[in-house]
Specification:
The complex is a heterodimer. By secondary structure, chain A is of the alpha/beta class. Chain A has 15 helices and 10 strands. Chain A starts with a helix and ends in a 12-residue tail after the last helix. The N terminus and C terminus of chain A are likely disordered. In chain B, 44% of the residues lie in helices and 15% in strands. The N and C termini of chain B lie far apart (92 Å). About 1% of the residues of chain B have low confidence. Classes of the chains: A alpha/beta, B alpha/beta.
């Protein structure tokens, strides 16, 4: 009897994990610190999330990422779970999800649960089911691990409030970077309503932070904030469009993260989708652009300026290098004198390397040897810097500088040798 | 030579006590040998030397920055036998220059920081990759679950990594066995026992099959990134992670799975290609992928039967096309129609579109003079051509002029070199190249001969389409 039940759960898991994998987010970082040292309950969060495994697609597996059901009343073309798709349908009961989460968690496979769902019956009904799982984990099992819940557009604000109470993070996907793309690929979704839901969540997070300042015991609302995802390459949005849209979302909704997911072929695809997927490198360049905005002091406009005339980031070099090659008047940067902001613009210098340079130059006049110890690749940095013993004579004017600084194309051989 | 014996590989307290005394007495690092436990040590060390040097009476003590204590506590877990002596050398330096740690470019500081980083990573990977297996102990009160893992860290980190598991799994009973040291949690306290062997750990857990199902299902075969996986999950950890047994077959089957998905969606296109085309066209109407949308009146999308075996690609709409919203209706279009007629091709049986879908022009007085699209504009607009081509999948595509050829081949080509025979476009389709009809309007010498040559090209293409049908 138990054996049958387990088989059944595995079959459902295969379908409902397969259906969930197009959501790129798997973060389990940045929430409040908790543990279960009091001997009650189970689980902890430690600030920094943990990736418990990696799949051959290079993506981290940190959470049990599943749908409650892959049935859906919507017919979004990009989605494997759309109404008109022929995929097999399955549905977990909230109890099954709770049991699966706990049995994976106890074996140290995961940091927690990322639960989403196709929309069945109504937005409220679907949201209630999602909240029921989180409530059971938190209240019946005193689960202190990480929970990420997807909120359903148009769900009752009271349900969204409950979701934020139980979850570390809530998210709702804007899905496509442009309104015209959303209209074509997700005709039943409404960009305005999605943004409205994001605005509500932002307001709830801000409210709760204020309450927490006054009363320490005030319950927190989604302490790891909210995030969203955009699909790249399914509509005609250029990289510039995407970067500017992301910046707009960060500004307006105080998002922790915007995820970019290169559209990839799905089983039983809709004819409205492009057949060819965009290069995965495009997604990577967008993440790099995102980092330039969040950690390197670039404005969205500056990042967009690194794009070519067609609005696309170069695929063969990273956006920081592309920017530097386009705006050479900012270089070379004197590592012994330049302010931190200027150092952050040097291709090949990461935030950590910049911190080390700033700390160590109080002690010594930096020479190339020193820089070599502080950075990953001296060759990449050298054309853009001045040190005690180095000045790139006219190097930044060389026409072939791009070729000069491009990383050699290498590929890791997995089963070689 | 002084010999210092430490109790354990990660004996930070022992190292600190000894190092403090040695540093106060200013013993040079080269005069100290460090040894863990009773292992055979340096042959030249005098075993009779006192374990810790005594500083001369009256020497003031010295303090080190908090950062050093944290750094040393971490770096001491590294497997490098030189770590004790390197840390001692750094400590000696800090005695005279308490802020020397800030000099991140210093080789010794860098080396020790790199050690600490490797240790932190190993601890993090242990937190990530330990896999507990459930065993049931029979006790007086009945069955009791216990969770046991086997793990092989690279550095001496088990003691440093264990508290994490106690915080997380406080209400569970668990053990982590490793070759050097084992740790156990009974629900209240952490205890240690000597190293163990893999055979002492349980060999499986029924839930692992469910976990492997999850691992296989969450993997997306359309985006293989093996390098990224191996970078974060180095192979040295694989042997103790049940899911990694699937990696080989998942990679091996990935390309075929992706190809099947693409094939399947190709087949579906036949059904509602019209809906798809109309949706793409509607999206194109609002295109802002390049700056040309600002000057033109509207996007001029392609037109023609969606089952057409033949697709003509021109350069860009002209003045009249821009106003009409349809391709090839101006003077060049009329000439094109005439040539098609002379070549025996019915224009209504072909799909006609442009490489660039907005009119680019310069204003001269009241007239809008055609201006050639640049590479960036062609590239930006290629998205739409790709959509049209993947929906129609014409057997033969004809590039009319250099701009169209550039769009289809992805590089600048010479028309005269490619004319008259089939080529492969970058998406693999059969592609022919000829001049743009506007060339025939512009050309001064041998207008007749050029026109005849164009008709000849078209006739050959018409034959080819018939042959392929």
């Amino acid at each position: 009897m138990e054996r049958m039940a387990r088989l059944d759960t595995r079959e459902k898991l295969a379908i409902l994990a397969d259906a969930a994998k197009y959501d790129a987010s798997c973060a389990s970082s940045g929430t409040s610190k908790r543990d279960s040292r009091d001997g009650k309950g189970i689980g902890s969060t430690e600030g920094m999330g943990i990736c418990h495994a990696y799949a051959p697609d290079g993506r981290c597996i940190s959470l049990l990422k599943i749908l409650l059901t892959n049935s859906c009343i919507f017919d979004c073309h990009y989605c494997i779970n759309r109404k008109s798709s022929n995929v097999r349908r399955a549905r977990f009961t909230p109890e099954e999800v709770v049991a699966l989460t706990l049995s994976f968690y106890r074996r140290n496979y995961i940091e927690g649960l990322f639960l989403s769902s196709g929309i069945i019956r109504s937005s409220d009904y679907t949201m209630e089911q999602i909240v029921a799982v989180a409530r059971s984990l938190r209240e019946e099992h005193d689960f202190r691990g990480y929970i990420h819940l997807k909120t359903i557009p148009d769900a009752d604000p009271e349900l969204v409030r409950l979701a934020g109470l139980y979850a570390d993070r809530v998210s709702i996907n804007v899905e496509l970077p442009t309104e015209r793309g959303l209209k074509r690929l997700a005709p039943e979704k409404d960009g305005g309503r999605i943004e409205g839901a994001m605005a509500d969540v932002k307001a709830a997070i801000v409210d709760r932070e204020d309450a927490k300042k006054k009363y320490k015991s005030a319950p927190s609302f989604a302490p790891a904030g909210q995030s969203t995802q955009m699909i790249v390459g399914a509509d005609s949005a250029s990289d510039r469009d995407i970067v500017l849209r992301a910046n707009n979302l960060y500004d307006r909704f105080r998002l922790r993260r915007v995820y970019y997911s290169a559209f990839s072929p799905i089983p039983d695809a809709s004819a409205v989708l492009p057949l060819q997927r965009p290069p995965l490198m495009r997604e990577h360049r967008l993440y790099q652009s995102d980092w330039l905005m969040r950690f390197y002091g670039f404005s969205a406009g500056e990042v967009a300026d690194a794009a070519d005339a067609g609005g696309m980031m170069p695929l063969d070099i990273d956006p920081k290098l592309a920017w530097a090659l386009k705006f050479r008047e900012h270089f070379p940067v004197d590592l012994n004198r330049a302010p931190r902001e200027a150092l952050l613009r040097v291709p090949g210098l990461g935030v950590k390397a910049v911190n080390r340079i700033v700390a160590s130059r109080r002690w010594r006049r930096l020479r190339l040897d020193d820089v070599a110890r502080l950075t990953v690749s001296l060759a990449k940095v050298r054309p853009f810097i001045v040190t005690e013993d180095w000045r790139p004579t006219l190097l930044t004017d060389r026409a072939d500088l791009a070729a000069w600084t491009k990383p050699a194309q290498t590929q890791l051989e997995l089963f070689g040798g | 030579m002084r010999l210092i014996r430490l109790d354990e590989e990660d004996d930070f307290e022992g190292w600190r006590d000894a190092a403090r005394g040695l540093a106060l007495a200013r013993i040079p690092p080269g005069d100290v040998a460090w040894q863990v436990g009773g292992a055979a040590g340096d042959l030249f060390a005098s075993a009779a030397a006192p374990p810790a040097a005594q500083a001369p009476a009256g020497t003031p003590g010295f303090s080190v920055p908090r950062g050093f204590v944290d750094l040393a506590r971490t770096a001491i877990c590294h497997s490098d036998p030189e770590r004790f002596s390197l840390l001692y050398a750094l400590l000696l330096r800090l005695r005279d220059a308490p802020r020397a740690l800030e000099d991140a470019a210093d080789p010794l500081v860098r080396r020790i920081e790199a050690m600490a980083k490797a240790v932190r990573r190993d601890i993090h990977k242990m937190h990530a990759f330990v896999r507990f297996r459930e065993v049931t102990d029979q006790t007086a009160d009945g069955a009791d679950a216990r969770y046991v893992a086997w793990f092989e860290p690279e550095h001496h980190i088990v003691r440093a990594a264990a508290p994490f598991f106690a915080r997380r799994f406080a209400a569970m009973r668990w053990s982590i066995l490793t070759p050097e040291l084992s740790v156990h949690w009974d629900g209240a306290t952490l205890t240690e026992s000597p190293g163990a062997t893999r055979e002492q750990a349980p060999s499986g857990d029924p839930i692992e099959e469910t976990w492997k199902t999850y691992y296989a299902s969450i993997f997306n075969p359309a985006r293989l990134k093996i390098g990224a996986m191996v970078k974060e999950m180095p192979r040295k950890y694989w042997k103790n992670m049940p899911e990694t047994a699937l990696v080989g077959e998942l990679i091996a089957g990935a390309q075929a799975r992706e190809a099947r998905m693409v094939e399947a969606s190709r087949d579906r296109i036949g059904g509602n290609v019209e809906v798809a085309w109309a949706a793409v066209r509607e999206e194109a109407m609002a295109c802002t992928r390049c700056p040309l949308y600002r000057c033109g009146t509207q996007t001029v999308f392609g037109e023609g039967p969606l089952g057409a075996p033949l697709m003509f690609v021109g350069e860009q709409p002209g003045d009249q096309e821009d106003l009409a919203g349809r391709p090839f209706v101006g003077p060049a279009g009329q000439l094109f129609d005439r040539a098609l007629g002379d070549a025996g091709i019915d224009r209504s049986s072909a799909y006609v579109t442009n490489a660039v879908k907005h009119f680019k022009f310069e204003r001269r007085g009241k007239r809008r003079i055609h201006s050639k699209p640049d590479a960036g504009e062609i590239e930006a607009c290629r998205w739409w051509i790709d959509q049209e081509r993947s929906l129609l999948r014409p057997q033969v595509t004809v590039a009319l002029g250099a701009t169209a050829a550039r769009s289809l081949f992805g590089r600048t080509v010479t028309i005269s070199a490619l004319r008259g025979q089939p080529h492969q476009a970058r998406d693999g389709g059969e592609t022919w190249v000829t001049v743009h009809p506007s060339f025939l309007l512009r050309v001064r010498d041998d207008k007749e001969a050029e026109y005849a040559r164009f008709v000849e090209d078209l006739a050959r293409i018409g034959e080819r389409v018939k042959a392929l049908a």
